[in-house]
Specification:
The protein has about 180 residues and is of the alpha+beta class. About 40% of the residues lie in helices and about 20% in strands.
Length: about 180
């Protein structure tokens, strides 16, 4: 199934990432078994689309945000590695530093973000955090290229939370890198 919806006939839908319902109309949706994500991403690039692409497969969901066809943010509901784990593995922080921030995160009922807490406490530089978050977003993109079943929906004019680190990656570059990675396996 592949469908382009009329702007006038669709009701507003709330974004799963931002919770924002203003101007978030589902204008494109389909089955990735029929129209694979490689082609969907190319459409976003060529058409210069802006908004949120939600891709769902069994056991996971990806949210990608585009501005004029450029990927600006991406995340998976089920990430293989959390940012704290990535920072530990890269030896940017210690386990004690992560534990301290996790405690603060827990006491804030999840409002305080781990990365922000690490920067605020001087455990890492913002630049290091931003680079790892970019890497995480790119890995999310590459993982979804392997999905061959599920659905996608595109919500026009939706933006990520203003606290997110934006990656500003051209789709053609990501697709080339992603397809090269797939060929290596």
């Amino acid at each position: 199934m592949f469908r382009i919806a009329s702007f006038l006939s669709k009701k507003n839908k709330t974004s799963p990432v931002t919770g924002d319902s203003a101007c978030n109309k589902c204008v494109l949706q389909g089955d990735i078994a029929v129209l694979d994500l490689n082609n969907v991403f190319q459409l976003f690039d060529y058409a210069g689309l802006s908004g949120e692409l939600v891709v769902s497969t069994e056991g996971n969901q990806a949210n990608f945000f585009f501005r004029k066809g450029v990927l600006i943010f991406g995340t998976l509901a089920v990430n293989r590695k959390r940012i704290g784990e990535m920072l530990l593995e890269s030896e940017c922080i210690t386990r004690a530093q992560l534990s301290e921030c996790l405690k603060t995160h827990g006491s804030s009922k999840g409002e305080a973000r781990i990365g922000e807490l690490l920067v605020e406490n001087g455990f890492i530089e913002y630049k290091e955090l931003a680079e790892l978050l970019r890497s995480q977003a790119k890995k999310s993109f590459f993982e979804t290229l392997q999905w061959n079943s599920g659905n996608f929906s595109f919500y026009a004019d939706s933006s990520p939370d203003e606290r997110e680190v934006l990656i500003n990656e051209k789709i053609e570059n990501l697709l080339f890198e992603g397809l090269t990675r797939l060929d290596e396996y």
